[in-house]
Fold Phytase-like domain-containing protein.
Amino acid sequence: MKASFLLALLLVVSPLWAAAPIEELKLSAEYPVEGVAEGNLSGIALCGKELLVVSDRLDDRLFHLTAVDGVMHAEAELFAAPPPPESGLPWGVRARTWAMSMMRGNELDFEGITCDAAGNRYLVSEAHAAVLQVNAMGSAEWLRISASLVRQARASGMLLHFNALLEGIAIDPAGERLWLAAERERRGLMVLHKKPSTWACAGGCVLFSEAGEDIPPPDLGRAVPMPKDFSDLAVHKGKLFTLERHAHRICRRDPAKGSVERCWSFAAEALTPPRRYEADWGLAEGLWVDADGAWIVLDNGGMTRADGEQRPIVWRFAKPAGGWDAP
């Protein structure tokens, strides 16, 4: 068979492969959240047996969630964050971030939460490209992160734009490897390793970065292409999982390279008519993956759903039919 014919055949069938449907996750429970008046939930983690969330509008607390009669009730855990370290971000980005903080009334903009097996909680600050550790006793301190993280990320085209900075965080159970996600324009993944006195890059900080756009699932009702994004990360059984907001999917990735191994969609459940918002983008902000399924938290930004629900939402999805480690 001639090479020219094979090339033509590939050009014809490759779009069919690209368009092949991925497995849809099944929603097992949906919980409105009470007790977070400011809303804007931005991260979720299951730490031990406790479900925790953070809000990007609150700098001094995280919340413990308890399910009662189909509603998650939030109880605040207060902490005092020291002044954040120098971010290494350019003056223009820092100035716009400062202006936004004056409008919103808070400075740190926590966009994700994760935890290790020792009970330490880690909150990523988008505004300062920094990570706050809150231990089990409630004491808070900023991690000492190598300045090369921001330098390498910016050299790879990430962390260049206001409000498109660090958006996701995950740590391994041993508390020795920390992954961070750049949100968009360009999106990407970075990893840090714990050293005696700092968190540093082993070789390079950046696993990968990419540009491009995602077209949302047809059920969104508005086929508005938007930059590819990450809105959170999770680690489960040695694999890295990314929450891809606009595409309405969770993808399993190689933790050393960031390359995609498999993806699952949650669009069919998220975009039923009663659950839709008047938005041209996805609202999934926080992700946690475990053996039995996945937790996703939505940031509704004060918007009301088609069914009249105004509170923030937490979803519990069952694990895929073949499990998270399916080939």
Summary: The chain has one domain: 21-318. Residues 183 and 230 are 5 Å apart (CA to CA).
